[in-house]
Structures are given as C-alpha cells and as structure tokens.
Amino acid sequence: MADSASLQSLLSTKAALDLGLISQADFDAVKSSFLRAQQIKSAVDVGLIKQEDYENTKQSFLGSLLGPATEPAAPVAAAAPQPAAPRAAPPPPAPQQQAAQAAPPAAPAPRPAPVAWQIPPPAPPAAAAAAQQHAPAAAAAAAAAAPVRQAASNPDVPSNIPKMGGAKSMSEGTSMSGISVSEDAVNLFYLMRLKATYKWALWQVDESDSAVIIAAVGEKGSTWTDFLAALPDADCRYGVYDFDFVTPDGQKLHKMIFLNWAPDSAKVKAKMMYASTKDFFKSHLDGLSLEFQASDLDEVSEQEVGDAVRALKRG
C-alpha cells in the first residue's frame, strides 16, 4: 500500500503513547498530520496535486512523526590566534580598497521553504452558495435539506437492541483512528450469536468518521449470495455471517465468520480507517471462528469459505 510508511509511523507513535513516552497532545498532533496526509493522497489520486509535490509533503509528514533530521554540524571556528607583537602600521589602502573593505559581505542566499500544500475545500453546491447570501436561518434550512448518504443499505436495520453482553466494556476508548464502536453494533453481534435472530450483518464507519454502526442485516432465510450482494462496490465494510455446515459424521454445526471488505475502488482514506479500526472492533466480538480479507468477490466464494470452515476442528 502506498501509505504503509505513514501508517507504520502512526502505529509506532501510538505504541509510544501507550508506553508513556509521549503525551496525548503529541499523539493527537501526529494523528492530525496523518489524516491530513491521507487527504492529500486522495487529492493526488484525483489529479488535484502532482505526485512529486505529494512526495515532498509526505516526507515532511514522516519527518514530523520520526523527529527532525539531524542538521550537519556547523564548522567549528578556528581558535583565535594569540596577538602578535606590535609592529609598524601598514600604509593606508588605496581608495578602491577602502571602498571594498567598507562594503558588508554579501548575505548567503536563503534556503527554499518546504512545499506546504493545502487542499482547497470543495466548491459548495449552487443552492448552498445562494443560501449563504441570505439570513442564517435560510442558510441552515438549505443545509438541512441537502441530501446525505443513507447510513445503512437496509431500511430494516434494527435499533435499540437489548444488551446481550460482550467481552469488552463499551467505555474502553477508541481505535487508533479515533473511532469508537456503538453499543447497538456490539449488541447486534451477540443477538446473532446467542439468539440466531439474523443470518448476517454488515457494519460501517458513520458519516462523521467517529463510530462503527450497523449498516445492514440479513434475515434468517438469507444466503451467502445475499450477503455478498449487500457489499458496496466502492466502500469498505465489516461483515459477520453465521455459516452452517454438516460434519462428516452428520452433525449440523455453525461458525461465525468475520469478513473485512476493502475493494480496490474504495478511497485510500476509507481503507486506512477500516484497517486501523478492525482489530479494535473485533475485540468487542467474542466467538468469531474465521476471518477473511477480500477486495474482490471471487476471493470469498461460498465454496472456498465453506472448505475453510469445514477444515476447522469442531468447537
């Protein structure tokens, strides 16, 4: 991945925070630089910034994570010679020499400043631009009317799910990307596992990039094909499927399968957020049997997944 160096530096900084080597404010500054770097990389992907300018900015960002580079040591001034015995004063210099001695030495040319790109904000829609010229109330009404992407692809996504327990307290912080996990998101998993209420579920990071929430669910009669069909073409998702199978001795069993979906067409920022939040989200889900990482549906065919499940020892 193009930004693996930036992510590794951020991971190292988080480890330093956990060990008490740096302060929370230092880590927040590095994380802010990391997210800004991902925005700049997205601008490179769509052609707003040239690749060489991105590389300069990326090196500057990595420098902020790893510390300033060591400047070459300034040459040590030669020791001042001991004053010699007084001698006769030399004859006065010629007028041209006096002018040359009076002139101050030329200042060295200043070093060029590092490249510092800022991504311009997207141009507001025509309706929003017009609303800004009116009273604040009119502007707020226009903003409220602006269309937004739905938080879930299934209109029957449950809410206010009864608490079903879990292996980790919901108060235990956020992921490395600053993303938390909603209580309903965790309760849905245990509702599936303990009550078999749903066959599968999908989760997503919400629009504010602040929490993992429920994206879609599949009823008991849903199939693996239905599960794959609910995955978006250009965005990431977490998924869990309750996979049923029959053992060679005829026993009917099931395993909870976790899928980390990150298609190639998804934005770099989304891939980074989901990758750095996956383990934190999974730490709330007790009882997963297998994990699959996929960027294409062919990588998680029902036959391939079924073979992997049946290869597990009976739990």
TrEMBL record:
Transmembrane domains' residue ranges: none
Record bears the keyword Ribosomal protein: no
Pro residues bias locations: 105-125
Biased composition (Low complexity): 73-87
Domain ADF-H: 178-310
Listed InterPro entries: ADF-H, ADF-H/Gelsolin-like_dom_sf, ADF/Cofilin
Chain intervals for the UniProt region annotation (Disordered): 73-132, 150-175
Alphabetical GO biological process terms: actin filament depolymerization
GO CC term, one of those recorded: actin cytoskeleton
SMART domains: ADF
Keywords attached to this entry: Actin-binding
CDD domains in the record: ADF_cofilin_like
Gene Ontology MF annotations: actin binding
One Pfam family per UniProt: Cofilin_ADF
Family from the record: Belongs to the actin-binding proteins ADF family.
Protein name as catalogued: ADF-H domain-containing protein
